[in-house]
TrEMBL record:
InterPro entries: Adenylate_cyclase-assoc_CAP, Adenylate_cyclase-assoc_CAP_C, C-CAP_CF_C-like, CAP/MinC_C, CAP_C_sf, CAP_CS_N, CAP_N, CAP_N_sf. This is Adenylyl cyclase-associated protein. The lineage of its organism: Eukaryota, Fungi, Fungi incertae sedis, Zoopagomycota, Kickxellomycotina. Transmembrane segments: none annotated. GO terms for molecular function: actin binding; adenylate cyclase binding.
Amino acid sequence: MSSDQEAFGSLLRRLESATQRLEKFAQNLSSDPSTAGRPETLAAVEPAPVAAGTTKPASPASAPQALPASVTAYDVFLTQEVRKYLDFSAQLGGPVAEQANLIGRLAQLERGVILRASQSRKPSNMGEFAESLKPLVECITGADDIRSKHRADKFMFERLTAVSEGAGAFGWVTVEPTPVPYVKDMRDSAEFYVNRVKTKVKAAAGDGDATAIGEWVKSYDAMLKALTHYVEAYHKTGLTWNPQGCEFKDYVGEDAKPAATAPSAGGPPPPPPPPPAPVAPPPPPQVAPTASSGTAAPVDMTSVLKDLNKGEAITQGLRKVDRSQMTHKNPALRSKSPVQSRQAGKGKPAPPIPTKPRSLTKKVPPKFQLEGNKWVVENYESGQLTIEITDMRQFVYIYNCQNLTVQVVGKLNAVTMDKCKKVGMVVDTVISTVDIVNSSSLQFQITGRCPALLLDKVDGALVFLGSECHDIEITTSKTSEINISMKGEGAGDDEDYKEHPVPEQLRTVIKNGRLVTVPVEHVG
């Protein structure tokens, strides 16, 4: 019993001694800040005795491999600009926060794409790369779906549209060889709605909600600008790949690595296996020089200069060509193609020109149905549709259609047409607005009244206005070949339409310190 008490007392004294040394070491760290954070200093402290049967702590893990500069810079973009946008979105809540969560996931998924590209070679089959980008496409599509669900609230719809238009900028990873202009185009598309939100926020100055929305839209605009600068700095000619990396399909990401097994409590973990012996690279193959090899033998310029100094005597070595060897007098020689024979003698065929990857969006079936108050018409490639409006609160949304004719019967709230080509549409009376964006080669007719018509990024449109649309407000942005055909106020059905082109060329002058813009008129 006395021996056990002595052993216990000895253990207490040793623990007290170790505690005193640790306290003294902590005081030294607090008095000298320059030594803080140096792990090698901890090795000077004598460890406390380890009781029998316990496990010694495992050695610290080896330092992780340094990330490429492109990934490190993208992490800064995530922690600063993206985080700021997500924080402001969380303050607003509702659909804005829901959409922001998808944008945050989209930005995080793109980091994995950049990291994978930095550690693997560019795949020869770009279908594998497109398959890996499906989660990004789902985020972009989800952000647009949230926008489509809130068309009734005009101000909310503009905010959500600004985000969905700019979300496509994260698709720069598929653009070669100039992704920077693509990102700028997506940012310009979003900037149109960003400026509209800023204008309404400025008009409601002093309102707490307006102030929060203003900070939110500024953070989103700053995020798109930062993404543009990042792509311009690290991926100016396309996504950066690693020629010395692994195969794209063999890449194992950080989340796919197997977790380390926990050591048993009975003893220390087994030592790591020794590193494999370095394997010497194989010697380069010895290639015999041939006449078709890429490297030509050096030319002796001395003999060339010597021949040039002969003057007219240099032609004495020429032999007379027989009549049978003249191609212009022998049709049989002209039928032969020496150019083809030289090409046939080459060793390797010309490498195939790489084709562009297919669009990431898969082909989906057409859709025509009423969802609440929204008539949805999507993905039609041809045909004719008639929509009968039963409630004036209903509105029509047409997306990704071509070679389609749509007739809307009845008074409705609004019409939106997005990403359409060669679509014709006839409507009666529209209470709110008609929005046409990202479309071309359209024909649109309003037989009743409509207060406003918005055309954004439209190339080629013929708009017919009835006699009741004399007070309509038409707004255009980034458009070309827009013609308005209309009748005079109070005109009858027999009167012909008169076509008026929308000005495309503007002239801006400075008068009294202000910009004055007027359309250019060509008279003559």
